[in-house]
C-alpha cells in the first residue's frame, strides 16, 4: 500500500492542547511544570495521627513557568485532605539577575471532589507571563488512598512493613501536590530517607545510594504525574534478564501490573511456576511506548493507552508464541468483554471507547474491559484497513515517533493515521457505514469489527468439544477420558473453563465429577485457573469447594480476581452470600482502599 513519509506537522497544534480534564482541580494550562523534586523521609509506625505514626514527610519543590499572556495571581495544585501542607515558600527567578531569597506565600485549600481538593497558592506580586519560579511545599502524608501502608503480616516475608504508592488514575494528588492530569508531563528527582535495613525504589531512569539511609533518583524523560511511583521495604533483587526492572509486590497489590517507567510493579500472582502468565509482563513492557511515551490526554481517552498496548502485546506474543496461542489468549479477552457487557448492559455509556467522565466522578470508577478489548478491536480494524502487517507495524513506529513525550486525543491519532495513508483518506475510510470512526469512539456496545481468531481453532475447538461433553446429564466418561488434558497449555484450560462457566449451572453432580477428573484445574495454584474454578463452583453452588474461594481471596487482593468472585458469591445461594460477608470482614484491612470500596458496593449496592 502506497503511503507518504510524513514530515513534521507543520507546527500544527495538537487537539489535545485544548483538552479539558474534569478530574483535575489544577491550573495546568496556566503554568508549565518543568520539574518536580521530592525530599522525603519515611517513618514506619502505627496507623493514625499521633507522634511516631507512619507517614512520609518533607518537601515538594516545584519548578514552574507562567504561561498566561496576562500573568497570574494564583496557582492551583491537585491535593488531598490526607496531605497536610504546613508551609509554602516561593523563589522567583528573574532572567539574568541574582534570584532573591525565597519568601513565604499564603495558601489555602478548596473543596473539589470526594477524591481530592485544590491547594491554592496566592502570589504576593502577580507572576508575569513566561516568568520562572520555584515553589517549596513542606508537607506530611499519613493514611490516604495514594500511599499504601502494609504491616509485616501483609507482606510475603512477614518480618518488615512495606509502603508503596499507586498513582493511576488520580491518586498521586494524595502522595504529593501536583498537576494530577495525564495532559502534561515533566521530569522529576527525589531524595528518599529510609530507616535502617530498608531499600527505596522509584520509577526513575537513574538511582544512587547517598550515605547509609538515603536514595537519590532522577527521571530524565518527562512523564505524567501518575507514573511517579515509590516503594520502600525489605527488598531483595535477582538478575533475571537485561535492562528491564520488575518489582514483585505484596499479595494485596490491586493490579496485575502497573507500568511505572523503568520499574514495573507486578502482582506475585504472575509467579505461576509455568511461565503461563508472561503476557502480563509483555503488556506492561508494551506500555513503555503506548501510555508512557504517548499518553491519553485525559482519562476519557484511556483506550489510547490500553487498546494500543493490547495490540502491541498480541503482536509480540504472535512472534514469540505463534498465532494459535495468541488467538486463544485473545479469545479469553473477548470472553471477558462479553461477560462485562452482559453484566453492565451493552448500551451503558461506559461501553464507548471515548468515555464522557462527568465532573465529580472518579475516573477509576469508570474502569472496565472496554478500553482494553474494544480498543484492541479498533486498532485491529485500522490494521485491517491497511491490509499489510509490515506497513502497519511501520506506521505504529512512526506514530510513536510523531507523538513521543506528548499527550494526545483520538483526533490527533486518527488525523495522523489518515495523513500517513493518503489513499485510505481518499477512500474516506473514516465514514464507511457501520464502521465510522465516530461510531467506534462515541457509540456504546459491541465492537463493529472483530479480528479473525480462527488461527486459534486448533487449540479452541478441542476445548469447546470437551466442554460440550460436560453439560450432558449422562456423562460419556469414555469420550471425556480420551481427551489428553495433561498436554494442554494454561490458556487452553482457561478457555475450556470459560466455556464451562458460560454453560453453568451444569446438571447436578457434574461439577463434583469435573473437579475429581481434573485435579490440575480444581487444585491449581495458577491464579487465572483459581479465579475461574471459583466462579464455576459459585455458579453451580458446589459448596464443598467454597473453601477454595475463601483461600484464594485471602491469598491476594488483585481487583481483576476479587470483584468477579464477590459478584459471583452475591448472585449465588444464601450460603455463598454469607461467605462473601465473612471473607470481606476478615480481609478488608488487607485490600487496597479502592478495591475495598468496590467490594463494599457489591455487598451493599447503593439504594438497596
Can you walk through the features of this model?
- There is one protein chain.
- α15 packs parallel to α17.
- The strands form five sheets. Strands 5-4-8-2-1-11-14-13 form an eight-stranded mixed beta sheet, with no helix packed on it. A four-stranded antiparallel beta sheet has the order 9-10-15-12, with no helix packed on it. Strands 3-7-6 form a three-stranded antiparallel beta sheet, with no helix packed on it.
- It has 608 residues and is α+β, with helices and mostly antiparallel strands.
- The termini are far apart.
- It is globular, with a radius of gyration of 26 Å.
- The N terminus is likely disordered.
- The protein is 35% helix and 21% strand.
- This entry's quaternary arrangement is single chain
Contiguous low-pLDDT stretches (5 residues minimum) are 2-8
Structural class call reads alpha+beta
Tally of extended strands?
20
Q: What gyration radius follows from the Cα positions, in whole Å?
A: 26 Å
Binding site for a peptide: 166-168, 254-259, 558-560
Keywords: Aminopeptidase, Hydrolase, Metal-binding, Metalloprotease, Protease, Secreted, Zinc
Cofactor: Zn(2+)
Catalytic activity: Release of N-terminal Arg and Lys from oligopeptides when P1' is not Pro. Also acts on arylamides of Arg and Lys
Amino acid at each position: 500500500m502506497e503511503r507518504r513519509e510524513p514530515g513534521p506537522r507543520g507546527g500544527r497544534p495538537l487537539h489535545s492542547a485544548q483538552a479539558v480534564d474534569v478530574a483535575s482541580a489544577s491550573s495546568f494550562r496556566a503554568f508549565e511544570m518543568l520539574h518536580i523534586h521530592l525530599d522525603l523521609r519515611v517513618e514506619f509506625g502505627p496507623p493514625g495521627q499521633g507522634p511516631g505514626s507512619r507517614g512520609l514527610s518533607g518537601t515538594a519543590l516545584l519548578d514552574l513557568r507562567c504561561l498566561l499572556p496576562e500573568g497570574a495571581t494564583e496557582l492551583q495544585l491537585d491535593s488531598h485532605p490526607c496531605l497536610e501542607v504546613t508551609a509554602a515558600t516561593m523563589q522567583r527567578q528573574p532572567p539574568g539577575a541574582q534570584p532573591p531569597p525565597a519568601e513565604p506565600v499564603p495558601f489555602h485549600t478548596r473543596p473539589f471532589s470526594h477524591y481530592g481538593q485544590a491547594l491554592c497558592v496566592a502570589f504576593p506580586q502577580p507572576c508575569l507571563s513566561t516568568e520562572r519560579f520555584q515553589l517549596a511545599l513542606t508537607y506530611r502524608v499519613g493514611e490516604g488512598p495514594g500511599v499504601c501502608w502494609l504491616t509485616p503480616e501483609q507482606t510475603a516475608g512477614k518480618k518488615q512493613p512495606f509502603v508503596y504508592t499507586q498513582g493511576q488514575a488520580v491518586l498521586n494528588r494524595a502522595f504529593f501536590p501536583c498537576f494530577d492530569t495525564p495532559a502534561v508531563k515533566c521530569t522529576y528527582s527525589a531524595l528518599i530517607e529510609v530507616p535502617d535495613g530498608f531499600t527505596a525504589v522509584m520509577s526513575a531512569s537513574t538511582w544512587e545510594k547517598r550515605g547509609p539511609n538515603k536514595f537519590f533518583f532522577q527521571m530524565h524523560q518527562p512523564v505524567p504525574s501518575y507514573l511517579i511511583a515509590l516503594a520502600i521495604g525489605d527488598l531483595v533483587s535477582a538478575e533475571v534478564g537485561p535492562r528491564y526492572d520488575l518489582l514483585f509486590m505484596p499479595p494485596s497489590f490491586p493490579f496485575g501490573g502497573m507500568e511505572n517507567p523503568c520499574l514495573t510493579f507486578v502482582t506475585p500472582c504472575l509467579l505461576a511456576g509455568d511461565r503461563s502468565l508472561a503476557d502480563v509482563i509483555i503488556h506492561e513492557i508494551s506500555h513503555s511506548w503506548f501510555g508512557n511515551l504517548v499518553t491519553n490526554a485525559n482519562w476519557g481517552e484511556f483506550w489510547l493507552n490500553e487498546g494500543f498496548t493490547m495490540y502491541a502485546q498480541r503482536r509480540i506474543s504472535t512472534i514469540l508464541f505463534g498465532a494459535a496461542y495468541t488467538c486463544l489468549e485473545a479469545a479469553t479477552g473477548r470472553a471477558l468483554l462479553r461477560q462485562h457487557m452482559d453484566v453492565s448492559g451493552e448500551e451503558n455509556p461506559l461501553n464507548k471507547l471515548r468515555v464522557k467522565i462527568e465532573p465529580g466522578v472518579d475516573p477509576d470508577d469508570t474502569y472496565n474491559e472496554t478500553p482494553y478489548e474494544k480498543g484492541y478491536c479498533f486498532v485491529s480494524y485500522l490494521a485491517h484497513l491497511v491490509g499489510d502487517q509490515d506497513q502497519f507495524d511501520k506506521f505504529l513506529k512512526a506514530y510513536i515517533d510523531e507523538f513521543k513525550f506528548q499527550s494526545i486525543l483520538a483526533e490527533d491519532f486518527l488525523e495522523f493515521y489518515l495523513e500517513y495513508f493518503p489513499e485510505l483518506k481518499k477512500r474516506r475510510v473514516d465514514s464507511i457505514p457501520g464502521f465510522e470512526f465516530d461510531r467506534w469512539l462515541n457509540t456504546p456496545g459491541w465492537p463493529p469489527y472483530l479480528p479473525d481468531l480462527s488461527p486459534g481453532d486448533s487449540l479452541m475447538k478441542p476445548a469447546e468439544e470437551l466442554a460440550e461433553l460436560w453439560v450432558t446429564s449422562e456423562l460419556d466418561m469414555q469420550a471425556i477420558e480420551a481427551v489428553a488434558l495433561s498436554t494442554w497449555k494454561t490458556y487452553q484450560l482457561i478457555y475450556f473453563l470459560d466455556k464451562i462457566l458460560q454453560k453453568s449451572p451444569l446438571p447436578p453432580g457434574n461439577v463434583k465429577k469435573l473437579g475429581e477428573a481434573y485435579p490440575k484445574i480444581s487444585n491449581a495454584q495458577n491464579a487465572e485457573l483459581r479465579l475461574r474454578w471459583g466462579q464455576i463452583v459459585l455458579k453451580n453452588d458446589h459448596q464443598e469447594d467454597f473453601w477454595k474461594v475463601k483461600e484464594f481471596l485471602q491469598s491476594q487482593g488483585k481487583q481483576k480476581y476479587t470483584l468477579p468472585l464477590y459478584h459471583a458469591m452475591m448472585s449465588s445461594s444464601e450460603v455463598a452470600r454469607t461467605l462473601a460477608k465473612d471473607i470481606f470482614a476478615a480481609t478488608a484491612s488487607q485490600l487496597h482502599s479502592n478495591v475495598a470500596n468496590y467490594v463494599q458496593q457489591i455487598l451493599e449496592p447503593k439504594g438497596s
